[in-house]
Structure formats: C-alpha cells, structure tokens
C-alpha cells in the first residue's frame, strides 16, 4: 500500500463524525474543534478523493451517493483501528494476556461463572473475551483460542473436545400446571420454543420419548438460548435447552424439567487453537485449567471420551 494514497486519519474522523451528526457544528463539538476546522478537513478530503461527499443544503449537510458508499468503509476501518488500539493497550505492563473467542450462551452460563477460578490460580493472567458465532481464520483474527460447538471441523486449527450437551425439556411450573403436562405426548399440541440453529431438536426429542407427531417444527424461534430460557421461565412455552444452561433456574424453581427424557446430540463443544503455531504460555495454562473444569463438572453434561 502506498502511504501517500491513504487520506489523513484526522480527515476521515472528521468526515465520519459529520456524517453521523449530519452537521459540521455538532461534529466540531464532539471533536473539540471549531466548525471551520471540521469543514476544512472535509473539504480537503473531498479534494483528495476528487468527489463530493456532502451536499450543502442551507444549514444542513446531506451525504451524496459517493459519501454514503465511502462512509460504510470508513466507519468499518475506524472501528477496526479502534479495536486494534484497545487490544494493544490491554498488553500495557502485562504480556500475559489471553485473547479468547467464545459462544455467547456457553460464555455466559458455563464459562463466565468459572473464570474467577482461573484468575485466582493464575493471578498474572489477563483476559480479553469476545463473542464469535462462527469459525474464523486465526491468521486474520487476534485470538489465541476459541470455543466452538458442532463437529470438530475448523480449517487450520486443532479442535479438542470438551463435552456434549444433555438437552432437556423445561417449562415454568405455571405452564406445566396450566396445561396439565404429565406425559411427553402432552407437549405435542402445546407451544414449544425452538433454537434457530437447531431446528431438528424437538423432532429428535419426541423420537427419543417415543412420541409421533407432525407438529414438531411448529413454534417461535430464538437465536440465543438466554432469550429462549427467559421466555420459557415467563410462561411462554416449553423449551429444549442444555441442562448446564438452566442449572440456576432449575435450582431456584423458575424452570422445571418436564421429563427424564434426555436428548444427547453427537455434536460437542471444543477448544480450538491454530495448528501452525505453539500455544502461548497463558493459552496453554488456560487449556489445562479448562480441561480440569470439564472433568470436575463431570456428571451433568458429559465429557467427550476419546474414540
């Protein structure tokens, strides 16, 4: 990349801020500059690009088509630069930083409650935890390790199994009582909540319970377990969730397990890390600690055994 081709960062920041506010004056207030300074930065940027980014309409500024297109990429670049800067700043005075990508439900309900134990055992370690829903390229992302659910398939990475889920049917006590749920077949005509990435789960659960129904796919869908579990706890319907995810709700009585039927899917949670480089010491310590936590958790959601 030719450095002279890239506009100055101050001009890009002034442009993004003015576009966000639709005003040079309000952009100047945010940036602690004069209105004239912001306007000048944008004019210089337009001259550099050879295109008009704003239409000046009386006291307002309106993005041109070229301005809207440029804003999308500039905003993404500034956000990436901000994230990279914060990432580097987290290393200040501490090289023992672990960058971890995790799934939101796993991170919230299984991992986060245990992290104090990791820090207590490794007080010099520092954590940066970020949500990632899908596999990514470790060469392009600043992560040491990641938590993945599904098959152990991740290009350019090693996937070590953690555990499989024990998926159970739950509902609020009020929902169970109101619909007089006593047998698995009682659930067939009722409202059931689905996790959008696991559309076959209810059909598989009914098969495990020996129930034939053509209604297995009906019901509202939720992207995240946390929202689905909360909806079930507030009487919306019955839900299929991993047992570990609703342990607190079951203990408090907000949710009840409806039947002993447990759906055990072949997919599993995995710890993933790049195969082309050695684990950094802090990542290796995290791996050992995580495997110990999985072994200690034992009984509920089952560890994945070799073979």
Describe it.
40% of the residues lie in helices and 21% in strands. With 307 residues, the protein is α/β, with parallel strands linked by helices. The mean pLDDT is 89. The two termini are 49 Å apart. It contains 11 helices and 11 strands. Strands 3, 4, 5, 6, 7, 8, 9, 10 and 11 form a 9-stranded mixed sheet that branches.
Task: Give a topology summary.
Blueprint lengths: L8 H13 L2 H8 L3 H15 L4 E4 L2 E4 L1 H25 L7 E6 L1 H8 L3 H7 L4 E6 L13 E6 L6 E15 L1 H6 L13 E4 L5 H8 L12 E2 L2 H9 L4 E5 L4 H6 L3 E2 L5 E12 L6 H17 L10
Parallel strand pairs: 3-4, 3-5, 7-8, 7-9
Antiparallel strand pairs: 1-2, 5-11, 6-9, 6-10, 6-11
Features:
307 residues; alpha/beta; two-stranded antiparallel sheet; 40% helix
Number of strands: 11
Q: List segments where confidence is low: pLDDT < 50 over at least 5 consecutive residues.
A: none
One letter per element, helices H and strands E, the order comes to HHHEEHEHHEEEHEHEHEHEEH
Largest sheet: 9 strands, mixed
Which oligomeric state applies? single chain
How widely separated are the two ends?
A: 49 Å
Q: Name the helicity range.
A: 25-40%
Question: Which shape, going by the Cα principal axes?
Answer: extended
User: Which class best fits the helix and strand makeup?
Assistant: alpha/beta
- Strand coverage percent: 15-25%
User: How many helix segments?
Assistant: 11
């Amino acid at each position: 990349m030719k450095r002279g081709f890239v506009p100055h960062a101050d001009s890009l920041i002034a442009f993004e801020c003015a576009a966000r506010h639709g005003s040079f004056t309000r952009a100047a207030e945010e940036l602690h500059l004069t209105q004239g300074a912001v306007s000048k930065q944008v004019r210089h940027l337009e001259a550099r690009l050879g295109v008009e980014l704003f239409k000046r309409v009386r006291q307002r500024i309106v993005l041109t088509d070229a301005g809207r297109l440029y804003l999308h990429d500039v905003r993404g670049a500034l956000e990436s630069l901000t994230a990279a800067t914060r990432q580097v700043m987290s290393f200040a005075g501490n090289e023992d930083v672990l960058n971890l990508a995790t799934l939101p439900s796993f991170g919230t309900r299984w991992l986060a409650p245990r992290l104090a134990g990791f820090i207590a055992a490794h007080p010099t370690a520092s954590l940066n935890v970020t949500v990632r829903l899908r596999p990514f390229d470790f060469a392009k992302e600043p992560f040491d390790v990641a938590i993945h659910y599904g098959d152990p398939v991740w290009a350019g990475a090693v996937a070590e199994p953690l555990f499989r889920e024990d998926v159970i049917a739950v509902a609020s006590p009020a929902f169970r009582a109101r619909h007089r749920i006593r047998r698995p077949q009682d659930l067939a005509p009722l409202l059931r909540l689905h996790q959008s990435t696991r559309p076959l789960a209810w059909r598989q659960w009914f098969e495990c319970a020996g129930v034939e129904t053509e209604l297995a796919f009906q019901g509202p869908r939720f992207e995240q377990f946390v929202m689905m579990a909360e909806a079930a706890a507030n009487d919306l319907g019955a839900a299929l969730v991993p047992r570990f995810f609703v342990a607190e709700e079951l203990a408090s009585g907000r949710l009840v397990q409806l039947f002993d039927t447990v759906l055990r899917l072949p997919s599993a949670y995995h710890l993933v890390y790049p195969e082309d480089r050695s684990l950094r010491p802090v990542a290796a310590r995290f791996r050992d600690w995580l495997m110990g936590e999985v072994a200690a958790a034992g009984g509920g959601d089952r560890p994945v055994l070799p073979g």
